[in-house]
């Protein structure tokens, strides 16, 4: 039975838990008087049953408390759940531990005190080593929510190394949770040294043996490039990324290139942006197809960025030369990049280079490339492009209206 089926079972057990709680309420009358109804009584019953000998009752109670943790129940009642949920992280049953970790993650967004939320950090870090992969995944997610909250910075820093080690977890789903949590950590109110360590670790992970880890690390760095991360921290990312682009082997540079493209739209210096462009353009001439593909994709993204038009125009000539590469997927990538550049604020002479290449693409053996070329040229004809640009479009588009493919003919006819 998977975890989703278990959750359904928990939901079915909730009425039983409530009934047992009602029985407990009756027996309580023989001793100290307890409220038998209302939110306080409900929370009290679930907390009591969280320690019941029966595993099923503990599971159902943990699930109920998880739902309560994300509800709008009064803060004083939510506060009462934190301690027992932290204790439940050591329950002998893995499902109880997983649900307790998830509940603590939900409490991170509640109004309970920062000090109390902080008490969950070290027990959750311990859960990152749990034998159950679902518990490790839930703990990583919960820590991500906690580092977003206003707990003490030193507690956030404590989570870094244990989370970083999870990149070597044997389970792919657990590994996939790490980058998102590290992004949240890097943009939080931690000391600059810890932020740098986090970013450096992600950059180093571009060289991880596992392809999925490299891709996840690249995705995390791209998010950081577009985040509220301080400009100085973004600028510090450039040098090691350029080194990765220029000196590493295999497909690693292809994962560095998109991060540089994301940084092109950030508030780093023009000098660094120029160096990034130079490195990406040099990558177009590399022998590795992954590197060329990553560079082409990155230049496509740069076309939509806030980079100055003159800098974007630097990409036109190298891209125009790229179709000499006989790799069909590369030609498609070049078409996409040049489509974006043609619509960008580049000088007219650069746009004319794009037009001339797309006129050639109207005769490409691949129908999809001919379609893209016809569509792009029509868009240019309908734009506010200079007259000299539009004048070059008429003859080729008329010729394309006789293409063997109906869609190409339709695109060319506008």
Overview of this structure, please?
There is one protein chain. Helix 3 packs parallel to helix 5 (94-107), helix 5 runs parallel beside helix 8 and helix 12 (192-204) runs parallel beside helix 14 (231-247). The protein is 72% helix and 0% strand. It is built from 25 helices and no strands. It starts with a helix and ends with a helix. The protein is an all-alpha fold. It is elongated, with a radius of gyration of 29 Å.
Number of helices: 25
Write down how many β-strands occur, each being a DSSP E stretch of 2 or more residues: 0
Largest sheet, if any?
A: none
Radius of gyration: 29 Å
Secondary structure category: mainly alpha
- Give me the strand/helix succession: HHHHHHHHHHHHHHHHHHHHHHHHH
Overall shape: it is: elongated
Beta-strand level of the residues, as a percent range? under 5%
Helix content: over 70%
- Stretches where pLDDT is under 50 for at least 5 consecutive residues are 1-33
Report mean pLDDT, rounded to a whole number.
83
- Distance N terminus to C terminus? 56 Å
List its traits.
single chain; mainly alpha; 414 residues; disordered N terminus; elongated; 72% helix
Short overview:
This protein has helices at 3-28, 39-49, 55-69, 75-88, 94-107, 114-118, 121-127, 133-148, 153-158, 160-165, 172-186, 192-204, 211-225, 231-247, 252-263, 270-283, 289-303, 309-313, 316-321, 328-343, 348-361, 367-381, 387-391, 394-400, 406-413.
Write the layout of secondary structure elements.
Elements: H1 3-28, H2 39-49, H3 55-69, H4 75-88, H5 94-107, H6 114-118, H7 121-127, H8 133-148, H9 153-158, H10 160-165, H11 172-186, H12 192-204, H13 211-225, H14 231-247, H15 252-263, H16 270-283, H17 289-303, H18 309-313, H19 316-321, H20 328-343, H21 348-361, H22 367-381, H23 387-391, H24 394-400, H25 406-413
């Amino acid at each position: 039975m998977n975890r989703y089926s278990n959750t359904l079972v928990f939901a079915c057990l909730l009425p039983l838990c409530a009934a047992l709680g009602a029985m407990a309420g009756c027996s309580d009358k023989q001793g100290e008087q307890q409220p038998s109804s209302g939110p306080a009584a409900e929370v009290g019953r679930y907390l009591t049953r969280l320690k019941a000998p029966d595993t099923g009752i503990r599971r159902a109670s943990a699930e109920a408390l998880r739902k309560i943790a994300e509800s709008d129940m009064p803060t004083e009642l939510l506060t009462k759940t934190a301690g027992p949920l932290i204790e439940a992280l050591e329950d002998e049953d893995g499902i109880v531990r997983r649900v307790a970790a998830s509940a603590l993650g939900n409490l991170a967004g509640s109004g309970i005190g920062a000090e109390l939320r902080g008490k969950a950090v070290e027990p959750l870090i311990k859960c990152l080593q749990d034998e159950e992969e679902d518990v490790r995944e839930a703990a990583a997610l919960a820590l991500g929510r906690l580092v977003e909250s206003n707990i003490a910075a030193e507690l956030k820093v404590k989570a870094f190394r244990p989370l970083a080690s999870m990149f070597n977890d044997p389970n792919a789903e657990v590994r996939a949770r790490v980058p998102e949590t590290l992004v949240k950590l890097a943009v939080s109110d931690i000391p600059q040294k810890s932020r740098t360590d986090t970013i450096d670790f992600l950059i180093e992970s571009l060289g991880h043996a596992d392809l999925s880890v490299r891709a996840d690390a690249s995705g995390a760095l791209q998010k950081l490039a577009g985040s509220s991360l301080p400009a100085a921290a973004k600028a510090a990312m450039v040098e090691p990324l350029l080194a990765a682009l220029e000196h590493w082997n295999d497909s690693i540079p292809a994962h560095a290139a998109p991060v540089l493209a994301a940084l092109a739209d950030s508030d780093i210096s023009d000098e660094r942006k120029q160096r990034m462009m130079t490195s990406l353009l040099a990558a177009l001439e590399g022998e590795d197809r992954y590197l060329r593909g990553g560079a082409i994709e990155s230049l496509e993204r740069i076309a939509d960025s806030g980079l100055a038009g003159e800098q974007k125009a630097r990409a036109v000539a190298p891209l125009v030369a790229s179709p000499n590469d006989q790799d069909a997927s590369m030609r498609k990538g070049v078409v996409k990049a040049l489509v974006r550049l043609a619509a960008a604020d580049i000088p007219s002479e650069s746009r004319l280079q794009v037009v001339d290449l797309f006129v050639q693409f109207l005769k490409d053996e691949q129908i999809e490339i001919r379609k893209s070329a016809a569509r792009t040229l029509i868009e240019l004809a309908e734009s506010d492009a200079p007259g000299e640009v539009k004048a070059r479009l008429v003859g080729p588009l008329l010729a394309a209206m006789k293409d063997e493919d109906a869609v190409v003919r339709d695109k060319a006819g506008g």
